[in-house]
Design a protein that fits this description.
Elements lengths: L2 H19 L3 H4 L3 H4 L3 H21 L4 H23 L1 H8 L16 H32 L1
Helix pairs in contact: 1-4, 1-5, 1-7, 4-5, 5-6, 5-7
């Protein structure tokens, strides 16, 4: 298998991993969480990010650099929800000082799914940025 094929496979696997780790959308839809003025938009961002991961997975084999850029955007869209479940205290202080309907239990919470989501996003961002950087570098060498 060529180096380009391995890179495409790694990128597709990272997108698939991020799409599979997505666990929060369906259980939170229709709850108070989805209707909040801060939490509602981050849940919607996560939904859009997950769809972008699926799109990037399909695009990877045809347009690797475009898929890498879409993956980076999807990572940025999904990260706030995972940060909310891992670090609710700093998240609340950063985004809003208003009164929240649910009292804060702890500033940091060990949530395995959220930590797994953050790790999956970090892997996908690393693979995609590496793909973007090295694809641009190899194209500049080919044009000389």
């Amino acid at each position: 298998m060529k180096k380009d094929g391995k890179t495409k496979l790694k990128q597709a696997a990272a997108c698939l991993l991020c799409a599979v780790v997505w666990r929060y959308g369906p259980p939170l839809e229709g709850t108070e969480f989805s209707g909040g003025w801060v939490t509602g938009p981050i849940l919607h961002m996560n939904d859009v990010g997950t769809l972008l991961f699926v799109l990037a997975l399909l695009l990877t084999f045809f347009y690797r650099r475009i898929a890498a850029a879409v993956t980076v955007v999807a990572c940025l869209l999904c990260l706030p929800l995972y940060l909310y479940f891992t670090a609710p205290g700093p998240f609340r202080r950063f985004f809003s000082r208003a009164e929240w309907s649910v009292p804060l239990q702890a500033s940091f919470v060990w949530n395995k799914w959220a930590i797994g989501g953050i790790v999956a996003l970090a892997i996908a961002a690393y693979v995609s940025l590496r793909s973007l950087l090295f694809a641009a570098d190899s194209q500049s060498r080919n044009s000389v």
